[in-house]
Each structure stands twice: as structure tokens, then as C-alpha cells.
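Please go through the protein record below and explain what the C-alpha cells say about the fold. Record follows.
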Amino acid sequence: QVQLVESGGGLVQAGGSLRVSCAASGLIFSAYVIGWFRQAPGKEREFVASISWNGDRTSYADSVKGRFTISREEAKRMVYLQMNSLKAEDARLYYCAAGRRHHIATIEATSDVGCWGQGTQGTVSS
């Protein structure tokens, strides 16, 4: 059974940094693209960033380019999202997601996702 568990959310001041982590189990981790999505109350879940199965390709939403960095650590089966220069509009529930199929380079739509984590809250105070 595939399981994705997020951690690291919390409260940070605007302009500050936060790192959220995703621990994966139950899948051949090195074969799957992993992404981050986020969602505000009453809004649709939106793409944030993804990293390919081999770590060679990353993609980002325009709203976070230059501020967020996604990375993966194969030995620990972990994916990280480093968020810098945080803005009030970055305050969302952040979800880790695994691709629906293996050896896919990116996931940018919710329809590309095969498994979701439970989410971790990122809050930004102004």
C-alpha cells in the first residue's frame, strides 16, 4: 500500500522560510515522480512543484519559481520542498503526491496523481 506522509508545516512570518517533507513508502520510490500541490479553503488544489523519478527534471508553478525548490533523497525515500521568501498567499494546505504511472517526468495536474498524502499546513503571518 502506497503511503505518503508530510511533515514540517507550521507558522512563519512573511519573507521567511519553511521546509516541508514527504516520506514515501509502499512503492518503488526511485521509479516515481513526486510532486507538491496546495489548496486553500474553498479553492481547487493547485500544482506547486514536481521532481522526476530520477531527479533530473523539476518543474514549478509560475507563482513559486525562484522561491521554492523541490528535491529528493533516494536513500531516505524523502522529497522536500524548500519555501523561501514566503508570502501571505503561500499559506495553504500542502499535499505530497505520487505520479499515477512510473517513469513519468512531471505531474502538474491532479489527474496525473495516483496517491496523495494527508497534507501539512503552511501558515504565513504578515
